[in-house]
Specification:
358 residues, alpha+beta, 5-stranded mixed beta barrel, 5-stranded antiparallel sheet, 6 helices, 18% helix
């Protein structure tokens, strides 16, 4: 038997590797763009930045430390410089793909950071495996601008898994829909007519405001916003306002709200405050051809008939009065049942004339 040279024995002491094989090595050097591994082979293994991660310009010295161990896949046994070219990200992507397949089969809820905002949706990465979430499945409401999700952690489920066609589709929308449905169910189990509840103004229209009650929206109609007169809901409320309301009615999934709290009803003590014969100061709220309506207090308007404005004949109230004007008048009629009050400026003038004569 011929004796082997030292070089031959050293050669045989190293394990053999092949392309595609998964190897484990110890980090012996780290540069900003390269990781060097001792993989028990005659040559060291090299992982370049582009084979470590898909993120550009990452400083690898911040990712791994000398002495740590890691797995990688062999791309080339000899990269041309006598070194073994390895990939970490492709191995991680394979493991991530397997992870996504299991999540798809089990309908598991995943959490991942948004890596990129695209024209048609969001791209997230799970263990180096990329998942695409179309715009239509990002939210349960239409969102034109998705940039707010960039870098955010979001939850989703895998609804399509076809790695051969590079189609791994995520869905966030169904989670939001399910979550809101659960919140809606809990809300309707908890609330009752008459309950006082806080909510957030979600939308304001010409006829009212929609209030988010935490699970469902309630409508605060313009007629229920105040005991006084509200000219425009958009001037009274803005989106994001937190308001206290009470539940006036629940009809199936519709909730009617009100801010006209009974204890604040201006008619509670109206009998004493607006007794016949009382002289009162009010603001002209609006006018018609037959008279003017004068606000005596928020929620209480009295009619000043055109015949009761002056001792002289007046064709229409706008000839002598204008909206917003403050006037003094005498209460000549009070009907609590029908909540009607009649005023007279003429009677007040007559009283003043009689007093002067005396």
């Amino acid at each position: 038997m011929s004796e082997q040279s030292f070089e031959q024995m050293l050669e045989e002491s190293f394990k053999t590797i092949r392309n595609g094989e998964v190897v484990e090595g110890t980090v012996i050097d780290v540069k900003p763009d390269e990781i060097v591994l001792n993989i028990g082979y005659k040559s060291d293994g090299i992982i370049t930045r582009s084979e470590y991660t898909n993120e550009p310009n990452v400083d690898l010295t911040t990712q791994v430390e000398v002495g740590s161990t890691m797995e990688a896949k062999v791309l080339k046994v000899n990269d041309g410089d006598g070194q073994v070219l390895l990939t970490y990200k492709r191995l991680a992507a394979e493991k991530g793909s397997k992870r996504l397949e299991e999540a798809y089969e089990n309908q598991e809820v995943l959490t991942a950071k948004v890596a990129q905002v695209l024209n048609g949706g969001l791209s997230v990465i799970v263990d180096e495996a990329r998942v695409f979430i179309p715009s239509s499945l990002v939210s349960d409401i239409y969102e034109k601008d998705l940039t707010k999700y960039d870098g955010q952690d979001i939850e989703f489920v895998i609804t399509e898994f076809n790695p051969r066609r590079r189609r791994i589709i995520g869905d966030r929308k169904q989670l939001l829909v399910a979550q809101k449905e659960e919140m809606r169910r809990e809300l309707f189990e908890r609330i009752h007519v008459g309950d006082v509840i806080e909510g957030t103004v979600k939308n304001v229209t010409d006829f009212g405001a929609f209030i988010d009650l935490g699970g469902a929206d309630g409508l605060l109609h313009i007629s229920e916003m105040s005991w006084g007169r509200v000219e425009s809901p958009k001037k009274a409320f803005k989106v994001g306002d937190v308001v206290k309301v009470f539940i006036k009615d629940i009809n199936d999934t519709k909730i009617a709200l009100s801010m006209k709290f009974p204890e604040d009803n201006p008619w509670n003590n109206a009998t004493e405050k607006f007794a016949v014969g009382t002289v009162i100061t009010g603001r002209v709220a609006r006018m018609t051809d037959f008279g003017a309506f004068v606000e005596l207090a928020p929620g209480i308007d009295a009619l000043l008939h055109v015949s009761q404005i002056s001792k002289e004949h007046i064709d229409k109230p706008s000839d002598v009065l204008k909206a917003g004007q403050m006037i003094d008048a005498k209460i000549v009629d009070f009907n609590e049942a029908e909540r009607k009050i009649s005023l007279s400026m003429k009677a007040l003038l007559q009283d003043e004339s009689a007093a002067e004569e005396e």
